Amino acid sequence: MSMSVKVARSLLVWIWVSSLCGALPFAIVSASALQWDAHSPEMLIREAIMTVEDTDMLIGGEVNLDAFAALKAGSTVDISVRNGVVYSVGDGVHLDASSKQQISTNDLQLLQSVMSNMRYAPNPNFNGIDEIDFSAQGLTAALYIYVQAENDPPKFEFDSSEMNDWYKYPRMFLPSFRLDDPDKDQTFQVDILVDNGTLFVEQISTSAFDGVSVEFNSSLSSLRLTSGLDRLNTLFLQRLVEIVPKSCLQGTTPTSCAALIELCANDGFITYCEKITLPQQDVFYHVAVTSWAKSLNITAGSSLNVFEAFKIQQRFDVVYDLLLRVHVSSGFFRVVAPNCGELRDFVSADTLQPSNLLGMTQLTYVGDAACLNKVLTTIQLQSPYGSNATVVISVELLSEEMRLLANESISVKVSHKRTPIQISVVRTSGDELWLTSLDSYANLTSLVNVSLVADPETTIDGAILELSVSCLHCQWKYRSFVPQVSYEYAQIPSTRLGFLGLFDSLRKVIASLQLAVTNDSAAAEVIHLHMTPTSPLPGRESGSGWNSSTDISIPFTLNSSDLSWEAQRRLMFVQAPNYTVDLSDKGPLKGHCHRSIGKSLL
């Protein structure tokens, strides 16, 4: 039998992984037929080793260098890796990583250095059995490597193009990102926390949230999303998480506070976190109060243009759906329909969250910020008349989701306002009875001294005034028409007359008034006089404007001749039913009674 006879050997490799896999046999790997010269040493010292996923390891110690020293010059050593790469670094050699290598046998010393420093790195995230095949000059060998699985931490991959300016817009949505993890079938939990603000999720598409659990903490500073990898990434790529920083002051200038946002992903075993910094910056929207309005006093019943006290500012032009809310704690608004925006009716403020305001509120929906100041020019505050208190005016700018974007308020001191015109009434006859007859008219000025007195500190020139006079048991009329006075509501005779005109003209109207008693059962007549400016708008009551009124009681008695005649008339009707009497001044029987059976002239 020749000394160079070839023999075949079948190699059976059993890998026991008790220390790493709970004392369970991992696998029986297939045998590799290896042929060699009986006098040639084997190429490998061991034919099965272990490593961990994503771990680089030295395999030069598994190579039998004597076998490679016996190789003849003029050929190559071929090495191939199924699921990884091999490379060699050290002792003055450098072999780049590759899954296939060819090493010349011409320099055996260099060959031995390469083989002794050879390293293996599995492909990223690979786990299982890998195989490295060696062949040279008819010799072959296989090194089996069991790559033990290891849980890889999840990672965030942000869109770098959005990282520099995501916070420079009116609404600060987190830049789009992906959650990456090789173990895609697991359930992931992503926590987003902000240390100086709140979080908001824009639910533009409810279907995007199918199968996703969304949880907020009580302060809305923490958000937890739980689902599979694909569903979560669908949300993250749509930029649906908004950061709402708190408000800060830089000196006296309002700013958005700096905030730190932390994102943490957990796959059930490992938690991975990244942080994003939100710098302090100027607020995008700002409601400014003009300097003169910071200490403001107005008189009761006067008006204030809201746009003169407030100005709305923004950093740059952008279109968003906004809601402008203007509130006054007392008084009311006069509003002209703006040429932009959608004006809403006055509403009760207690239905509007989150302000919980009491009083009167005006709402206007606008499509862009350019319209905001135009809307303010259409709103006028009418302060309450007769009030001596403080009125608070607040302006709030809200998003379409009713989240506050900017706000400001002023306190307006309302001082008592003197009535421009006083009605002065004095009885001309003191406590004497007014002796009159039924339906007999007397001049008003003969009974009372009525005068309209203008306050010298107020201006009423050109103001249209409304004068009304009324009584309980009388009728009014007037002796003549006064020019420049409306008599539309002064039809005579009537218990109530109304006149519209200038101050001096209405004084002449009072001088022309006459009244007559129409009811003998009363002992006094009550006269009411009232003056007020006309309504500022057609059909709008002027209840918040000034008014002046007075009541005066005039005791009266009917003329005795009238009473005597009435008594005699009734007496004769009762006592002499068969007699008639002609009390007129006509006829020859003046002052005589005649028998007339069955007739009565009364």
From TrEMBL:
Keywords: Signal. Residues 1-23 form the signal peptide. This is Uncharacterized protein. It comes from Phytophthora fragariae.
